[in-house]
Specification:
Elements: H1 3-18, H2 47-65, E1 70-71, E2 74-75, E3 78-80, E4 85-88, E5 91-93, H3 98-119, H4 122-126, H5 129-146, H6 149-157, H7 162-191, H8 193-202, H9 208-228, H10 231-236, H11 238-241, H12 243-246, E6 253-256, H13 258-261, H14 284-287, H15 308-319, E7 327-330, H16 332-337, H17 345-366, E8 371-377, E9 384-385, E10 391-401, E11 407-413, E12 419-422, E13 427-429, E14 433-443, E15 452-461, E16 464-474
Antiparallel strand pairs: 1-2, 3-4, 4-5, 6-7, 8-10, 9-10, 10-14, 11-13, 11-15, 12-14, 15-16
Bound molecules: iron/sulfur cluster (2 copies).
């Protein structure tokens, strides 16, 4: 390491030391008495906020439109946990397909981890439903009803009078109404829009269970967006709590360039202080923060990467003729060493794992069967000797039809000679349903040379083979 590098690193260390670490002893949303410190973030504005608004409008349009979209008479997406019915992109998934869900979930988690390692919590600020609804729906309504941060503070501080009661009642009513609308759509993802519409047309008394669920969801949403707010991200969200292990100095996060900004100080027009950094300590970045933190203290658990502080600081930099980007999306390491982000081994490894998982998931989805068949021997039965001398075993077949049409099934023995006798009229599995039927397999004694014979039973729809079920035929010991 040469001397100029050593000096540079000493300067960086000195600038790091300039940052007061006392913020680590407290949480911005809890006051000294341990009570909730309600935040009144200033209305953000700027280039990134405009992009975030556009992205949010797209998400909201998708959220409110999807429940109406149907594919072959079924919703495009359905997550009916109680009815154990799941539809993804119009494809019905059954409890038998649970492993595909598990792989899908694993892929999603690895994707989130990979994304977080590289781009930090940008998901939280730009795509998380909690942030979208809080910042782009309820916060905007709040600004519209109660005004910007200063007016909201004044309203909170004023004694209760008719004006304050009217303001609070209006806000509560509007928040509950919006929560109710969101709850209707949320419920439609669980039980289908047709069920929600049925409740609306048939009335509450005929669908009181659905209505109670709806009121429950509405009340939870109202509580979260009216009162709980940023606490959902700070205290409850497990993804937020994981940031400490996912992020490191190479992760891209919303970060303050302390090398450029420190030592901070108020802007003095009369003198040009060459020792002073670019941060003029105006606190504009702190005032817009929806989680109440000062990003100049470094990456913190509360930061949801909403980028509001970037817009605020860029506007300040413009006004004092300094370059934008004192707060920007960058890694701590890049800021310390004044360099651009580059590909690293960790990004490569996570990307490779993600690609493998996506390929595997794709294979599972493509190779997913329309009909699942399970053949089991009837419990407590061994074998029977028929009057014609043949040996028979009683089996039971369970069929799950995942398609939207009835399927007539025929069974064929694939690897041995013998006969299959269905007990009952025929094997037709109704659309999207299960069917179970007992049947006999009868084989000539000459075919049953061993005590156990492996049977391959072909499950056919006409000439089309749907699956091969495996079973064991039990014969006499000699
Ligand atoms: S520090 Fe900046 S990016 Fe992080 S939550 Fe606050 S305003 Fe958003
Ligand atoms: S907005 Fe920029 S200049 Fe103002 S306090 Fe924050 S970092 Fe410093």
């Amino acid at each position: 390491m040469n001397t100029s590098n050593e000096i540079y690193h000493e300067i960086v260390e000195v600038k790091k030391d300039l940052i007061d670490q006392s913020f680590r002893d407290s949480v911005a949303t809890i006051d000294k008495k341990g009570k909730r410190n309600f935040l009144f973030p200033k209305k953000p504005k700027g280039k990134l906020y405009r992009w975030r608004t556009i992205a949010s409008l797209v998400y909201l349009a998708i959220f409110f439109t999807l429940p109406f979209v149907k594919y072959k008479g079924q919703p495009l997406f359905l997550f009916n946990v109680i009815g154990r019915k799941f539809i993804l992109f119009g494809q019905i998934f059954w409890p038998q397909d649970f492993f595909i869900f598990a792989i899908g979930l694993l892929t999603f988690m690895v994707f989130i981890i990979l994304f977080t390692v590289v781009f930090g919590r940008v998901f939280c600020g730009w795509a998380c439903p909690q942030t979208i609804f809080m910042e782009m729906v309820f916060r905007k309504i709040e600004f519209w009803l109660d005004g910007d941060a200063q007016k909201q503070r004044q309203l909170k501080a004023m004694p209760w009078n008719a004006y304050k009661v009217r303001k609070r009642a209006t806000k509560m009513a509007v928040f509950y109404l919006v929560s109710f609308v969101i709850a209707n759509f949320f419920l439609s993802y669980l039980i289908g829009m047709s069920e929600v519409e049925k409740m609306i047309t048939e009335g509450i008394s005929a669908n009181y269970r659905t209505f109670i669920t709806l009121i429950g969801f509405s009340t939870v949403f109202f509580f979260v967006y009216y009162w709980f707010r940023e606490q959902a991200c700070i205290v409850v969200c497990p993804y937020g709590r994981l940031q400490g292990v996912l992020l490191d100095k190479k992760s891209m996060v919303v970060a303050y360039d302390f090398v450029r900004g420190e030592p901070r100080g108020k802007l003095k027009k009369a003198t040009i202080n060459t020792d002073q950094g670019d941060c003029i300590d105006c606190l504009a970045c702190v005032r817009v923060c929806p989680t109440g933190i000062d990003i100049r203290n470094g990456t913190q658990l509360e930061c949801v990467n909403c980028t509001a502080c970037i817009d605020a600081c860029d506007a300040i930099m413009d006004s004092i003729n300094k370059p934008q980007g004192l707060i920007r999306v960058d890694s701590e390491e890049n800021i310390e060493h004044e360099r651009k982000n580059k590909f690293n081994w960790r990004l490569g490894a996570y990307s490779a794992i993600l690609l493998l998982l996506i390929a595997f998931l794709g294979y599972l989805l493509v190779s997913r069967k329309d009909v699942d068949a399970t053949v089991l021997r009837a419990p407590g039965q061994i074998f029977q000797v028929q009057p014609d001398g043949r040996i028979s075993n009683l089996f039971s077949i369970k069929l799950a039809n995942k398609t939207r049409k009835s399927i007539p099934i025929t069974l064929k023995l694939e690897n041995v000679k013998g006969e299959i006798n269905i007990i009952g009229s025929n094997l037709t599995v109704g659309a999207e349903s299960y069917f179970q039927s007992p049947f006999f397999v009868k084989m000539d004694k000459s075919q049953v040379a061993q005590r156990k014979t492996k049977l391959m039973i072909g499950v056919y729809e006409g000439d089309k083979k749907l699956e091969t079920a495996v079973a064991t035929f039990i014969g006499p010991a000699d």
